[in-house]
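Preliminary data (for renewal application), magnesium ion complex.
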Amino acid sequence: MRIVMKFGGEALRDEERVLYTANVVKKFKKEETIVVVSAMSGITDKLYDLARNVINMNESEIRREVEKIKRRHEIVINKCVHEKYKEECKNVLNNLSEKLERTLLGISYVGELTPRSLDLVLSFGERLIAPIFSYVLKSIGINSLHLTGYEAGIVTDSNFGRANPIWEKTKVLVRERVEKYLKDRIPVITGYIAADEKGRITTLGRGGSDYTATIIGSCLDADEIWLFKDVKGLMTADPKIIPEAKIIRKISYIEAMELAYFGAKILHPKALEPAMEKNIPVRIKPLFNPEDEGTLITAECMKSKDIVKAIAVKKNVASLNIFGAGMVGLPGIAARIFNALAKNNINILMISQGSSETNISLVVEREDVDRAIEAIKEEFKNENVIKNIDCNRNVAILAVVGAGMKGTKGVAARVFSAVAKAGVNILMISQGSSEVNISFVVDEKDSDIALRALHKEFISQED
Ligand code: ASP
Ligand code: MG
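Predicted structure:
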């Protein structure tokens, strides 16, 4: 059996966790196992802050910050790496810390942080821990080696900060570069980072090491991909808001993708695509109860009796309502709006157009909303098409997800009457044509109330 195991920051928080995680690998490894790791917890955020602020820091401040990061990794080496590998492992750490320092000093001298240099800085989180974790595995008797995402063969476009794999190349290279080790070693691969065709480091977007795991898994035709997380599995709702939320034991790729997309922070939204394409089961495994089966994500869209599997809430979003009688019957307006946003790297989370065609509503991340308004105004600046753009900054999207909704009549009616009964006003509605998701927008302050009402209507009551 060939499996990919991925461990995130929560698994690599400190030396105790690192050791625990290495023992999880030891206990659950199969004949062929690949490990993907993300940075130690908090390191990517730290690197991000540093990169942003380095221009205003002096040399000794920069050195001190790098030293702190180095120190955290050094403690892990001291506590978890066997004497006979310590020196080798520390050399790797010294080397990388020096490179990080030089990179930051370079940015500070130039006085400019480009997306490309930001990715380079961010890459150090994973590049530091992967070799250390590999040495920890060796220290507990597991033959291992470490590779960066690009050494492992992941080639992406040059969309720094949100790079996409170039599949034709990646498929061939990953096989060529990783498969040969699997007979007798466990490769530890850095999540999140890759390189473009010119060999420049790219990242796959925050939280992207899940994506690395599924890219590697799909290139190597893994039998299963296990994403170890700090949670019990995918849940029917956020347990912080709904204490009676339940673990979802089985869910389809499509449903899980909808949940990831709409706020279940547990999964990177793109991560399931490569697995789905090859039909490789993905498991969300509880790190602290690794025997548990967690949540299994496969292709079967079992039409179970539960119509709704889960309800996700995405907060920190804003809605835009674009008006103008000039939009009626004029083809291409929506396309131009979407293009203007795409050009500015603004992701649209939800769209709806009234049939009178005098308005288009969209939802974007709250942090993008000002740039979105500007981009749309700029696109139509000398035309009399758009009269007004209304903006509501404090909204949330609720997404009701379940393959059982498909072809079941009256689900939308039940959703909206439950929300209405709870006294919550709905601002915008959309249903994907896949029918596995009904999503709608409410004031953010009402979103927990709406969530509770829906969980009660569709999930809690079915016990
Ligand atoms: N370390 C990266 C991040 O924090 C990637 C990941 O955690 O998956 O975004
Ligand atoms: Mg991380």
